[in-house]
Amino acid sequence: MDYQNAGFDDNMTIQIGQNFSAKNVDMMVAVATNSATGCYAAAEDKNIPVIYTAINDPEAAGLTAGNATGTSDKLPVDAQLDLIRKLQPEAKTIGILYTTSEPNSVSTVADYQAKAADYGFTIEAVGVTAQAEVTQGADTLIKKGVDCFCNLTDNTVVGVLPSILEKTNEAGIPVYGSEIEQVKIGCVASAGIDYFELGRQTGAMAAKVLKGEATCDEIPFETITEYEIYLNNGALGEMNMTVPDDIAEKAIVTDAE
Questions:
Q1: DSSP conformation letters of 152-181
Q2: Band (256; pLDDT cuts 50, 70, 90)
Q3: Range 77-192+227-254 has CATH code 2.30.42.10
Q4: pTM of the predicted model as reported, rounded to 2 decimal places
């Protein structure tokens, strides 16, 4: 195993993929969109198999052809909107920060915009092009008077989530995460998938390809559809939010680390 971390640097992601290719590795495994597209581009000429994971929309990311397959962490948007409505019955506007160059984020924002009206919401989305713009984008949403933030699995935004939470906590605006780690950091709640299970599923696919039991183009990408409700009681308490009994009974509770 050769583990490499690009540290939110797209140029480094490309270099890592090229380095793997130069070493003629037997397989590249990539977590999240930028890593996956970087590895895919570097592996294509040598036909090195690429197994990806945590890709919200593999088709939009251009990862459904060639010697690549993996798992999708497509967010349960309906479940998240339903959760927000139950926790904030009077809320009208949801703010979303996203990276304009990340296909998964663009796709997810479009999904939220298409479904928000069904739950009585409007979406106020602000796009950024770099991590340095994220906190400014948060200020913009706060000034627009959104009732809450909904945080995606956008790598650029998640990388500075603690800074966003500092601003939203001061403004008294709850932030909903997309998975348990974001809730541990300080988001009030989330309807999200289990990323440990997503990794297990991805590893099984990688093993099948390495053993020669199947090629990537013979294995369609897979999507985890099961989700859990995660709550951060400390963050909810700071926002004076009450959790309905039907949600509290089935939720997994965690407090900020």
A1: -S-HHHHTTHHHHHHHHHHHT--EE-SSHH
A2: low
A3: no
A4: 0.84
